[in-house]
Each structure stands twice: as structure tokens, then as C-alpha cells.
Specification:
By secondary structure, the protein is α/β, with parallel strands linked by helices. It folds into two domains: 1-61, 2,3-Dihydroxybiphenyl 1,2-Dioxygenase, domain 1, CATH 3.10.180; 73-141, 2,3-Dihydroxybiphenyl 1,2-Dioxygenase, domain 1 (Roll). Helix content is 17%, strand content 29%. It has helices at 18-29, 82-94, and strands at residues 11-15, 32-37, 43-49, 52-59, 75-78, 105-106, 114-119, 125-130. The longest helix has 13 residues, at 82-94. The protein is globular. The mean pLDDT is 94. Keywords: Metal-binding.
């Protein structure tokens, strides 16, 4: 028996402040709010594009994302080209978000793909990348993929 073709549906993230996170994800990724409950004890938002659900936010946590524990390593979004990555980087800088590396970087030494690596307001590691055009900068991590060690 073969496994049917799979693709990622949506990604659910726990956040500490739904209003802040919805604003962040809308500004950085251009998401629209598909559904939301922003009052009461069970607060959540469904975010997507063109009616397709991509990220769900659940206000049910405290503290900061623990990078030293098993679980999500980072969430990555592909854009069509390096110019879209640079626009995202500019938006991040306007919001006061500092990239983990110095701007747009390749996925590894000699790789053309790459992007910008950063964290959301709760410390969740994120990436926006393009399949080519990032080979104008050196890879910040030698001997391993850039996206694996940040």
C-alpha cells in the first residue's frame, strides 16, 4: 500500500498576545484574517492568503519560545524571487525586527537559495527565502545549512 501524496496544510503556533501577533504576521507576510475570536478565554486567529488557511495563532502560552527543547525548529515561507525577500527584510527593519544574520544570506556556502532569518514577537524562529539570488553574500554558518543553526 502506498501513502497518498501529502503536503503541509496549515501551521498552528501558540502565542502570548493574539492582537500583537496578528498585527505582526499581517504586516510581515501580508496575511488576511480568515477567522478570529479575540475575546473570552479561547482566543485564536486563522490567517491566510486568497482564502487559503496557512497559519493559526492560539493565545494559550506564556514566556518565550524555547529553542533548546524538542519541537518546532523554524517556520519557513518561500517567495518567488530575491526582490520579495528584500522587501520583507525592509518591512522587518521598519517594524524594528533585527534579522538573525546580517540581512539576506544564502542557505549554505555556494548555494543560490537563501533569505532572511528572524523571530516573531514570541521568539518563534522564521525564515522568508527565495530559490535563487542569495549568492551575493557569504554563508554565515560554515559546514552546515544556514537555516539549521540560528
Amino acid at each position: 500500500m502506498s501513502t497518498p501524496a501529502l503536503r503541509t496544510g496549515h501551521v498552528g503556533l501558540n502565542v502570548t498576545d493574539l492582537t500583537r501577533s496578528v498585527a505582526f504576521y499581517r504586516q510581515v507576510f501580508g496575511f488576511e484574517v480568515l477567522d478570529e475570536r479575540s475575546d473570552g478565554e479561547r482566543r485564536f486567529a486563522f490567517l491566510g492568503r486568497e482564502g487559503t488557511l496557512m497559519v493559526t495563532l492560539w493565545q494559550q502560552s506564556g514566556g518565550v519560545f524555547p529553542v533548546d527543547r524538542p519541537g518546532l525548529h523554524h517556520l519557513s515561507f518561500q517567495v518567488p524571487d530575491i526582490e520579495a525577500v528584500r522587501r520583507a527584510e525592509a518591512t522587518l527593519r521598519e517594524l524594528g525586527v533585527r534579522p538573525v544574520h546580517d540581512g539576506v544570506v544564502p542557505h549554505g556556502e555556494g548555494a543560490s537559495s537563501g533569505g532572511v532569518f528572524f523571530t516573531d514577537p514570541d521568539g518563534i524562529r522564521l525564515e522568508i527565502y527565495a530559490p535563487s539570488g542569495a549568492d551575493t553574500a557569504p554563508a554565515p554558518t560554515q559546514g552546515a545549512p544556514t537555516c539549521g543553526f540560528f
